[in-house]
Amino acid sequence: MPSGADIVAAVAAKQTAVIRALRALTEDELRAPSSLPDWSRLTVVCHIRFGAEAINRLVTAALAGEPALFYPGGRDEQRPGTLVPAPGESPHDVVESLAANGGALDATLAAVTDWTVMSREPHGAADLGPMTVERLALLRLTEVEVHAADMQIGLDTWSDTFVDAALPMRFERLALPLSNSPVPTHRPTGTWLLRSTDGDAWFVVAGEGGVASRTARPDESADGVIEASRRNLLALLLGRSAEGVFTYTGADDGAFARGFKAAFPGP
Fold it and tell me: Is the pTM for the entire model greater than 0.85?
């Protein structure tokens, strides 16, 4: 399992690669569509720019023992304005602002010595929820790795550090979704076994009492079984396309297993 220092190094490396690729684009290319519906590359750049600022705020507050929020002004109220350039800001200005915010976050994370410090939110607030500084760094790594691929700028390959750290975390988050995560109107009840071709596996159960997820036992069986590489299992959990082979078996000739994506559409 990657350490906090490993995650920080991966964040810095991916942020550097993203900035380099974005600086090479023209303004028209920055305004071109990304792979996300209705989002241009510039929308994504604005989004990850704010993400760097927000994670920096949360980590800094956690280390100081203070509460903080990802969206201090409220998600519904503040988020739309974070997805567009400021008045008078050019696309390349946004890229340079991303570079500055990312560099500030890199410096904050590089100074962390205790990765178990917990963040907390103001009383009565609910956004990301409390989590360790290491988990906040992993959320940032998720943001830059996934959105780098979304922008289609030649950075489609996810790092091993990201896959190894994020996959177990994403299974954990199935039972503890973020407050803004989409919830299907009707989630089927049953069990899934998601098995990596690299050897590890996870067991997921959905019922009237909610969702639970854990590491699977060697002899575990389930209503639906999905087998794929670790990278592709992570893509499935994140709601992203996956290249390669998925094997679906179990109830209804694998139909129940294929329904996992609709049951858990991702963040």
Answer: yes
